[in-house]
């Protein structure tokens, strides 16, 4: 143990510079008198002797126990690093050991090891690992400081170093700072030993694009050449995505200004796409799905006439057939600037379609009101192209079918959807499609097929989906009235049978739904807490119960079923009615206990619900 703190300072002064953390120096380390910089968010000013004195005074003011612990820690770290360096004979082994230390989260030891190894040999790979670690931790400023320290220690950055820095800037959560640092380092490369290549160019363009800085993006784009920085498919993809996500297009401007900005933006995109197609025809770049979809989504952001060019675009680059055209026909507003595959001068490699392309096709069909073609494209992509639809594809397909009122295709899609893709939203869209497909005599049958999937694959059924299913049974009866146009009683019995079928399917699922509120796995302290926590979901379930009561009343009061069926419905109605009554009573009790007062209109609604529930309970 040291006798005085002055001795501690002198003893640790040699190790202080080595054990200093990036932006977090050890308490026992003093600022060295040399030109070594400490790391901070902003560039520090030149250190003066007064700062050293203040640091020394602050260090001397620490308790003796703290000084002893940190001194021992620094010595242990120093000893461990020196021991490792005895066995790490080459830079490959050192880089491997640094990566292992970083993998275990021991950044301090990895940094000290790299600094010590830098005295005698080149360990650029180890520095790259350190910078990459900080970039992944979203410590942009600290990573740039470490890059500067690397150069001061005579460690010459290589191409991989700059790739790590630029990709880290592109993924940074501080886009403005990232753009400034990336451009500064990129410009230094233009006059340095290591020249930027296409990978560096794309990473810097990605940084500018994510920050919405199009001026800087096009400035960097001017450094493109036909040699080391020749553009590739990723370059054009980044530019098109940056144009589509321009911040000024997202602003709340008037419709005329927004339309004009979109038109100008798409014209720029067309020029960039023409350059890409020209290079593709000459075999200088490969067009892939990402690039095609980037251009397609740019067209989809414009008006309908521009969106029509999406299908010709896919035919040109992917040889996807045009189901919207008959042989020899043309579409109004279709662009003729881009050549068809038969016009390509040299053999080229076409892009391979995938889920992204299928999603783009569905968006296009919805925009140009060609929803009837959705099923043809859906089947073609799966059978002819071997594309496996993802979750987003299924959702977009269901939304297009909703517009097309294709309940049969919607039911088939729900049946084919993997269990992990099925959500309450997908069921709701499918049931809504069945409701609006009123001209289809099989709409209710399709709804029953969808409901069976929900009952089988969902842990708890969705309350709103259940109400939509019941609505489908009550509203889709046009085919029955037409079938029994001459017999009103027969038509009424057929409609009643349809409603009773829906209630029979709903009954076990509704009981399962209500049991979820009694045996909940949510951590609560009391039943009141559980009721308050699930209050919104319970209100949805009670709303479903009320719709079921209304449907039962319609069947019973209008005698749309035989007496035996009506007696079953009456007994079920009593159960539902008591359930509603208990819920309304709990709502009143909860509001009185918590002191919450509802608006007069809502309070009157609750009073009416309670009176109605009590009155109907005494009827049957």
UniProtKB/TrEMBL annotation:
It holds the Pfam family PPR_3. PPR repeats lie at residues 123-157. InterPro entries: PPR_P_subfamily, PPR_rpt, TPR-like_helical_dom_sf. It comes from the Eukaryota. Belongs to the PPR family. P subfamily. This is Uncharacterized protein. It comes from Echria macrotheca. The lineage of its organism: Eukaryota, Fungi, Dikarya, Ascomycota, Pezizomycotina.
